Structure formats: structure tokens, C-alpha cells
Amino acid sequence: MYEDQLEVNRLASLELEKEEKSRKEVSEVKAVKQKEEQWKTKLHLMNLNEDPLLTGQIKYILKKGKNTIGKFDKDTPPDIIIGGVGVVKEHCSITLKGNTAKLVPNSNPNIAKVYVNGKLVVEAVGLKHNDRILFGSYNYFVLKNPNEPEDMSIDWEYANKEIFKDQVKALTSGQEEKLQEKIKEMEEKYEAERKIAEENAQKKMEQELKSIEEKYLEYEEKLKEMKERGGDDIELRQLEEEIQKMEAEKSEGMKTIEKNIQKETERELQKQQRMREQAELRLQEQKVLEEDLALVIPKINEVNEICLQLGRLNYLYVPSILTEVKGNQVKSRICVKIYPDHEQDIYNETEISEFLNKYYLIQEKFQDYQYDLENNEVKEEEVNMDEEVKVFGVDIKNDWVHIGLAHIYTDTIGNLLTSNKEQTPVLNNKGKVVGELTYSIIPRHIEDDKEVNLLSYDSIEDFKGRTLRIILKIHYARGLPAKFSNEVVCKYKWIDEEADEYETEVNSNHTINPDFGYEKEHELFVDPYVIEHIWDNALVIVVYGKMAPESIEVKKKIKASDNQTLSNVTNTHKASVEFNGSHNSEVESNEPDKLRKEILKYKYK
Prior knowledge:
Blueprint: H1 2-39, E1 44-48, E2 59-61, E3 65-70, E4 80-81, E5 92-97, E6 100-105, E7 114-116, E8 119-120, E9 125-127, E10 132-135, E11 139-144, H2 156-172, H3 175-229, H4 233-309, E12 316-326, E13 329-339, E14 348-351, H5 352-374, H6 385-392, E15 401-409, H7 411-414, E16 419-427, E17 433-444, E18 446-447, E19 450-451, E20 467-478, E21 487-492, E22 502-503, E23 515-525, H8 528-536, E24 538-546, H9 574-577, H10 590-601
Parallel strand pairs: 3-4
Antiparallel strand pairs: 1-2, 1-11, 3-5, 5-6, 6-9, 7-8, 7-10, 10-11, 12-13, 13-14, 15-16, 15-24, 16-17, 17-20, 18-19, 20-23, 21-22, 21-24
Helix pairs in contact: 2-4, 3-4, 4-5
């Protein structure tokens, strides 16, 4: 009897639980439907995500009056909770009056950053339908008014490009123009030399024709005199043969001049066509470069902010564009400079793939830190430099550093001319002259064990199907950066070789004016590819240097996080990549330190 009653009670309890669960599910469904109905009628914020499937999955309806926005705070929770790097407590607020929304930033908008349509908000600003809003580092939202028409073009990519277009422009603008200016300057120099050589050859040909013409007239006069006085038949015949021979030489000379003019015209047309094709290709590459930068810069900014929160006050990550020039072709790629200590101008230059690997490791470390922070477990951190190197990539290896490129234009080889102790500038990746290289180029041809006089030939095209010998001498460099002049070496690849790389002996004299005394004779088989390459390209000499040992000492002491300040400090690396206003991509050594001091004084309510 007692057991039966227990079973009845158990079944009744299960039924009550089932009914409660059902009521809860119905209530949740109603709440969702109610929310959906509100989204159709009320002003709200909608998230934008890099993954299109996740866009629109987070929505916040704006209530009448003040809507506070920021990190979760159990004491004073905000109306709209947004987490992540760069977001602080009381980050900002949106006031809704009628259908008019106004965004009010934090009292320190340079730290609690909010962007509207790509512009940093420093004072209250009105919001309208389809305005893009970025809270902190990567929380993108768009303001939606259901009564206004949709704009399907507004997505995460659109908002991201809008935010970082100034930074992308700061990195890309001016740099290529400087490089192209230097290329043009060198091209003009060698074009002038080529024209002088051609003019000299033309003058020589004209002088020879003039000499033939004068001799021809002299013989004609002689022939006329001999006929008048009835000269010897054999002598007359010899004179007539000489005149015919001179006529043939004259005709051949005229044909050679016409042929040279035609060849030059065709060469110029082909050059212009190639330049147009290269310009189109460069425009396409530039577009891809800008798109890649728009994706990478936010991650670099985020890493800099995380480093501040984790107490890595000396670390700094800066985007950079490495540009290489070969002839009139410019190739650019993005890399990241990692400064172990921003107070010293010493850095690792890493490829984007390697930086992204560090980015995810740093994110993971930050998430662990956030967990400890929420559970009040943040404590002094014992620094393990092996771990620092693995996660942050802050090791400095005394490897060869790319100082710059020196371009030896090879159209002098095309004209079979010797360049003796010529100077060419050494350009760094921003097109800035960082030194000068002195070289010599001496073309030769050996036939039947004898040196051929190249002055009797017009150009390299006369040697098609044969082999030339080219002596390259790299004499010395002058005025290289002192920081990278502990050891210096030059490397290059020869014109018609892809695999082999040649290099001078290393100069280890710790001088900005290293001597190399390098000499190498290369063979050059003249085929159509080589002929085309010779006229329109350059031999690129890459100059590398190493730092002095005392230059690579970096601080290995990391300041532990101050839970009262750094836990809320974000979005700060002014010197890293925030190129608004007067900022640029050059790191000013005193700026990060000044900014950090300002940040450490700032405390949130």
C-alpha cells in the first residue's frame, strides 16, 4: 500500500516536470517569436562576421533612453554585453529618443575605441540606418531600421575595409611611387647612354658612307678623265670594278642604317607593349595586396592590444611591405616586423603565415588570462623565454638582414659596351637610398682562341646562337647603414640562370664602406629570351648585412600584469599601425613608451 502511494507520487512528479518543461519551451518559443517580431519593427544592432553564415546571428534591440554597452560587470551589468579584446566596462552608450539614435563614447575614446563608418568617435554622434559600428578590435555591428530598405552590399568585408583603408593607404601609398621614380631615373640614365652609343655608331656609319661617297666621286672623276684621254682598257675596267664595288658598299651601308632604324622601332614598340601589360598586372597585384592588408592589419592591432593586457609592454608588431624590383617589374609582399623591445630599432621580419601561427597562440594565451581574471586567479607570471619565443616570436637571431637592392641595367651588354666602375644606388624596400654600389661589366667574345673586337658589331643580336663571356666585377659599397655593417655580403643570380646563386666574400671589417674585390666571368648563350631580357631588365645585386653582437641585446624582463589597470587596457599601440592623421608606418621609438605611461595612469570606474 505504501509502495503504491510512492509510485503514484513519482508519476505525478514526472508529469509536473513534463508540464513545466513544456510550458518553458512554449515560453521560449514565444519569446523568440516576440523578439523576431520586434526585430521587424524596432531599431536594433546586428552583428557582422567574417563567416557570412554567422552574420545576423546576434541582435540587440535598442530600448528607449540610454543603452549602456561594454564588458560584463556583475556589479553594474551593461544593457548590451560585448566581450573580447579592446572592449572595456562602460565602453560607450547609445541613447534612443523616438527613432533617433545617438552614440556617446567613453570619456577616454582613444582607449575605449568605437568606430562609426570607419571613423573614430571622439564625441557624441548621430546614428542612422546601415551605419557600421566597431566596438573594440573586432566586434562589428550594423544599425538596422526595419522600416528602411536593406543594403545587401554591407557585410563584414565592407566594414573591415572601411575601418582600415587609411592604414592600408599609409602602407601602400608613396612606396611604389618612390621605387618607380628610382627605376625611371636609372632607366633614363641607361637610355641616355644607349642613345649616345647608337648616335656614335650612326655617326661612324655616316662617316664611312661619306668616305665611300667621296672616294666614289674621286674614282668617277678619274674614270671620266681616262675616257677623255683614251686610257688603257684594263685600267678602265679595274676602275669601273672599283666604282661598282663602292656602289655596292654604299647600298649595303644604307640598308644597314635602315635595318637598324627598323629594329629599334620594333624594339621600342615591343617594350611599350610589355610595359602596358606589366602595368595592368601590377594594378591587379596591388588590389590583392590591399585586400590582404585589410585582413591582416586588424589581427596585428589585436595582438598589440593583447600584449599590453598581458604585460608585454615592450613587444610591438608592425605591418610592413617588402618590395623587390627586377628591371621594370615590381613585386610586393606583406610581412610583419616583431620588435622584442620597441625602444630599440631591432626586429624580426616574419612572413604572414608565420605571424598567423603566432596570432592564434597569442589568442589562446589571452583566453587563458581572461579565464584566470574572471576567476580571480591572476598572479605574477614567471617568464620562460623559450615559451615567449614560441608564442610571441620575440627571438632575435643574428641572421643576415636584407639591406637593399642594387640594379645593374644590362642594356649596356645589349650594346656590347663596357661599364667601368659605374655607381648604382642601393635601395631599401621603401625605395630609400641606403648606400651605393660600384661595379664593372665587361662583355667579351672568343673565337678560334682569339679575342674578337666587339666594336665592329652593332648589338648583342649579332651574336644570336653564340656565346658571350661577361665579366662582372663588384668593387665596393659605400655609405651602408652602420647598424647592419658588422658583416656585409652581396648575392645575385645570373641573367640566364635560375638555380645558382653567386656571392662575394663576406666583408667582416665592421665598416659602412666595405670592399669586395669580386670578379666572376659568366657565359651568356644568346637566344631570343636573353636578347629580350637584356634590353628591358636588370641584374639585381642583393646586399645583406649582420648586426654587431652588442646591438642584439634585448630586454628579457617582462612586467607582470597589473590586475587593476592592464586587465582593462586595450587598443593602444599608437606606433604600431594606427595611421590616422599624422601617423605613419615608421615606428617612433618614444611614442609607444609615452602612450603606455598614459595608459597605465588611466583607471576605469
